[in-house]
Specification:
The structure is a homodimer. Chain A is an alpha+beta fold. The first copy, chain A, has a single domain, classed as NADH Oxidase. Chain A has a 4-stranded antiparallel sheet. The first copy, chain A, is built from 9 helices and 5 strands. At the A-B interface, α1, α2, β1, α7 and β5 of A face α1, α2, β1, α7 and β5 of B. β5 of chain A pairs parallel with β1 of chain B.
Chain lengths: ~200, ~200
């Protein structure tokens, strides 16, 4: 075995973890979300930027508004998941850079003075953080159901603002019955990795 | 404890894992890279797309060519790391979708017939996969040193083609002496997470 990570942890995070489309009724608490965040906040990003923002959609009224913007095939599971989170990228993340990168506070002005540069960096690095978050949901013994099938402009208008771009909506909870499709194939190592 | 992942695994992947800027001389084998890929290939993406491509820069001549395109502050560590990988997004990933999503082969033509849509999807989902890869490097007991400080057009021209966009270059190996800066601060839970 070339991995040092415990095989049960490999299973929990990757091999047996599955995207869930149905959930049990068991709630997901704020304490669980905090434990997830306090673990995955250490995942690396460029210049230690932290563009990921997480909106927990908890009230019945907010949940209804969100479901309205989901694609037809995503409505039922978004309506019934114990917790739904909107993950977004903060395009004004550079304001926090001097605090987050104390040994190189000039990075804010040297690299991120232009909005299009910031938008690209925010979207890339928030995506890295979204992946860490999904791994963290699994580390909490929960299943994630990440979705990109929704009206992005509608979700931005209802739940965010011009400075925050939605990335994905994630259903979170304990998997219910028939929660997952059969595992789809993956590309082989030789289709993905080359050597020069 | 709200997490079910073993605390030692939490440390290995997030809490004690650090971005490395210096490495020991111990080589990183192809078997290790294969074990990493065979674990993290299960990380979820939209439509099960697999846009991430990994170029292992192994020959001395290739390493020199890559170092030429790195930013000044990244040259020395890229020259000396046991292994360097270029992570890229395949903008023609849709060709594989019918094989990767056998229950919904129409997704290829329904959603990804236009190149700009593919480029955005490839870059977002390859970023998710890059984050899973970094977690996998750590699962192998190695340290990753991801970098975006390089000439993207130059690296694309030298090592890729018009259909493949570089995302980052990652140094990989066992950390050497003084491998990491002191841990920089992270945003608090309340700065990142809100509830509606």
């Amino acid at each position: 075995m070339s991995l040092v990570l415990d095989p049960r942890a490999q299973d929990l995070l990757f091999r047996e973890a599955r995207t869930a489309n149905a959930f049990s009724a068991e709630p997901v608490t704020d304490e669980q979300v905090q434990a997830i965040y306090d673990l995955v906040k250490y995942g690396p990003t460029a210049f230690n930027q932290t563009p990921l923002r997480i909106v927990l959609v908890r009230s019945a009224e907010s949940r209804e508004r969100l479901v309205d913007h989901m694609a037809e095939g995503n409505k039922a599971k978004t309506a019934s998941a114990p917790l739904v989170a909107i993950l977004a990228a903060d395009n004004e993340f550079h304001e926090e850079l001097p605090a987050l990168l104390p040994h190189f506070p000039q990075a804010k002005d040297l690299f991120f003075s232009e909005r299009p540069v910031r938008e690209q960096s925010a979207s890339m690095n928030a995506a890295l953080q979204a992946a860490y978050f999904i791994v963290g949901v699994r580390a909490a013994g929960l299943a994630a159901g990440p979705m990109t099938g929704f009206d992005f402009a509608g979700v931005q208008k209802e739940f965010l603002d011009d400075d925050h771009t939605p990335l994905m909506v994630v259903n979170i909870g304990k998997p219910g019955e028939d929660a997952s499709f059969p595992r789809s194939p993956r590309l082989d190592f030789d289709q993905v990795v080359s050597t020069v």
